[in-house]
Write a structure and sequence with these properties.
It is a single chain. With about 280 residues, this protein is α/β, with parallel strands linked by helices. The chain has one domain (about 20-280): Thiamin diphosphate (ThDP)-binding fold, Pyr/PP domains (Rossmann fold). The chain is about 40% helix and about 15% strand. The protein has an 8-stranded mixed beta sheet, with helices on both faces. Strand 5 (about 180), helix 8 and strand 6 form a beta-alpha-beta unit. Helix 2 crosses helix 8 (about 190-200), helix 4 (about 80-90) runs parallel beside helix 6 and helix 6 (about 110-115) packs across helix 7 (about 170-175).
Amino acid sequence: MEYKASELISKYLRSRKIPSTACSGCGLGMNHKIVVQAIQELGLGVEDIIWGTSIGCAGRQTFATWKGDGFAGTHGRVYAIARGLRVALPPEKHLILTVGDGDAFGIGLTHLIHAARSNANMTVIVNDNLGYQSTGGQYGWTTPQGSKTDSSPYGMFEHNLMSEGLDVMHILKGAGATFLARHVSMDGLKAVETVKKAILNRGFSLVHMPYPCPTNFASRELGSRNQVNIYRWIKDHAAPLGQEKEDTIWATGIWYDASNSRPEFSQMVWDTVDKIRRTGKI
């Protein structure tokens, strides 16, 4: 079911933060709506969610939009804060983190890996605008290979975490994540269903969500800030898992689902503490 943005805003978000200060045509609002709609469809209220944000476009545009409790953890530290909160919070509370590609796969990658390793119950939404757009449009950890950016005027030629068979999903699976998925902004209700599954997993979940940046990425790579062009470009380079074409950059859908298959971090901590109290040993 598709909900009107106004319904979701009035129930879950601070009206003074809407509309955001994002550039015209930015796809981040679509990603934001997907997450909030998933929360609505799960029947969760403002009091059920603690929302964490990062830095850059993704962090700045989602910071303090949630009506309930929230926090910011800049430069990749949001996962470390979230792990501490996970131990302190009641198990029924949900942690949702909206981060950018730099916070997730660059400066924050080590923290992210340890959150996955410990299987801490949190849902990480990686809002990926394909580079460092808030600082001028430099290439980043997931910039499509060959793309022209502010810092790669002849095309980005370095190996990164989304080039020539490399994919950050394999790193996270190996690290211990129990739910991994990818969607582009235009996936709409399919993405909503996936985010719902991510939230319901009692463990570490991550959904990678590339979205259009007309201002920097499109203007350099496509030579135009026309919003229609970048939306079509991303949609044309995405395909469902198993239906990839030669020019597919993003294979979308659920990459790995081992929901509730490993002990959850905070529960294991409290169970161990209880055992030590009772027996004096682990």
